[in-house]
Amino acid sequence: MTDQIPLSLPDITDDEVRAVVSTLRSGRLCLGPRAEEFERLVARRTRRMHAIAVSSGTSALHLALAVLGIGPGDEVITPAFSFVASANCILYVGAKPVFVDCDPRSLNMRAEDVERKITDRTKAIIGVEVFGNPAGMPELAALSNRYEIPLIEDACEGLGGRIGSDPVGSFGRLACFGFYPNKAVTSAEGGMIVTNDGRLADLCRSMRNHGRPGSAESPDTTSGLGTWLQHERLGFNFRMSELHAALGVAQMRRIDELIEARQWVAEAYQRRLLGTADLIVPTLEPESFMSWFVYVVRLSDRFTVEDRDEIIAGLRRHDVGAAAYFPPIPLLPHFREAGGYDEDDFPVASSISHRTIALPFFTRLTEREVGLVCQTLELMMTRATFSRS
Q: Of these residues, 96, 117, 123, 183, which one is catalytic?
């Protein structure tokens, strides 16, 4: 193999370049019309009344907890199998994360497992659509309604997906999106909170901007300082720049094209790998439509974590991007030391995390490249099997 196949690549066209350059030349680089347009497009896509652009998906999660007033002494239920931000955000506000193991099929939390972790100190549930899979989110929403505990939907990996007719981002009291370069829609860095709660939306707008009034504008675009030096509450600098928003707007205008292209790549992998011995490919419920974030396969339990790491190293030696997604969050050092967790506490997440392999996944992968990736993966699996015998 002569050409490297990277793990991911953003899909950037001349439209995105022109949008960013035009914004640079406009002189308005923050709190301007591009961010407002980005918010409108995401709100419309998720059927929400309000959208608030922020600096990252992580800051969106942090801000969601902050506007709900969650802090020391509170517990927040969150998945053991997810990207670390869905638990780090709980530590940011001084609350305690309560981890739930994942379903072996969807990799998401099951409502019945979450229910067993609810106490009188539970103040929120963070439900994650892992890898963009929305399975189980309606059940989590129903559970949160029944217990009157806010659901924060961590939809950072799933914009454009749906379950039935309900879009990803429509299930939580607040939902959070991220736009890192490996996402279906990217703004390079950036995030978004969506909600139907006008009070929470106003708080988000204020607290993303140092606690200024929600209507505060940048002093370089108004006469005098106006409300710019008024601070009504403790806040953060979680603003999204106009440059990031311009890129996001251009991507949102292409979202169906981007999702369709990623769907094609996922289906190409499925056709090639379905039925491969000792390999588990992603599965979806019939009512779910997935906006693919990554394409992650799992080795059977015949393989050890050392085998998996050897296979990933072999793929990389052959110029095929690959990675392990995700380690169980409670077993990361800063959680493990605080909580005293071990692998037996989260057996499904621990087992799965030892055997996951993320394969190259982006819109412009060709059928030939998918074939090369799969051929190399199967070769590395065979070598790992022989090395044990």
A: 183
